[in-house]
Amino acid sequence: MDRRTAISMVGLGLAATGTSVAETTPSSGGIKLVMLYGHPPDPAEFDKYYLGVHMPLVAAIKGFRRMEAAKCLPQADGSPPAFYRTFEMWFDSPEHMAAVLATPEGMKVRADVANFTTGTTVTRLVCKLDRW
Predict the structure, then answer these.
(1) Which of 14, 16, 31, 34 suits a disulfide with 125, CB 3.0-4.6 Å?
(2) DSSP letter string over 13-25?
(3) 32: CB partners within 8 A, 6+ apart
């Protein structure tokens, strides 16, 4: 995903939540959900579905603090990255994440992951954000 597409996806998420960029700046603390997608058998098909179908479903979710999607670049030596794509979504607490993902929109997104990840790995992490 190029920078313009990433910014557009964030904008879609902001529009879906009815918030401004200033409201989405994470304060200290909270948690984030991290999705790490392995290299798919057909990257073009993966991207077509991920960007055209899955991410619009993600953008429809309301109530999260921030989200970010990215396509991984090769390592400095030119070797392939460990993962193909990453996705992060920030929340205030585990309970906040559970409530947001339990909405009809969140459940649609969770159910949709299987529709584009056949043949690749999906690693899901929930991380506690450090305070600085």
Answers:
(1) 34
(2) HHHHHT--HHHHS
(3) 88, 89, 90, 91, 126, 127, 129
Question: Which structural domain, as residue segments, surrounds residue 59?
Answer: 3-19+27-128
**28 burial type by CB count under 10 A (0-12 exposed, 13-18 middle, 19+ buried):** exposed
| 29-48 tens-digit pLDDT | 899 999 999 999 999 999 99
Q: The domain that contains 72 carries what CATH number?
A: 3.30.70.100
**What are the structure tokens assigned to 43, written together?**
């990257």
Q: Dmax over Cα atoms in the chain, in whole Å?
A: 44
* H-type alpha helices, 25-79: 43-49, 55-59
Identify which has the larger pLDDT, 96 or 6.
96
Query: Are 58 and 16 a contacting pair, CB within 8 Å?
Result: no
117: Cβ contacts below 8 Å, ≥ 6 apart: 37, 40
* Spatial CB neighbours of 93, under 8 Å, sequence gap ≥ 6: 30, 31
Q: Structure tokens of 100?
A: 């947001």
Give the count of domains, the chain: 1
